[in-house]
Write a structure and sequence with these properties.
- This protein is α+β, with helices and mostly antiparallel strands.
- A hairpin with a 5-residue loop joins strand 3 and strand 4.
Length: 68
């Protein structure tokens, strides 16, 4: 059975990775700035593997590392 629509999703955002300096904000979540697309992908994969987490690529090209 799927999750009920009234049930709150149970996930945690572990990291936010981007190429855009203005998107890096302070807060509880780790925010990292990469210098190019190749570094962005490599950092995302390494962090997700180390934290045993999943990766979501947003339409903006930024990445979220999440644990469900």
């Amino acid at each position: 059975m799927g999750r009920e629509s009234s049930e709150r999703p149970n996930y945690e955002i572990l990291a936010f990775l981007t190429l855009h300096k203005e998107k890096v904000l302070n807060g509880n979540t780790l925010s990292l700035l990469a210098k190019d697309e190749e570094e962005l992908k490599m950092m995302t994969q390494d962090i997700a593997k180390a934290m045993k987490a999943d990766v979501v690529r947003m339409k903006s090209g930024d990445y979220l590392v999440i644990r469900v």
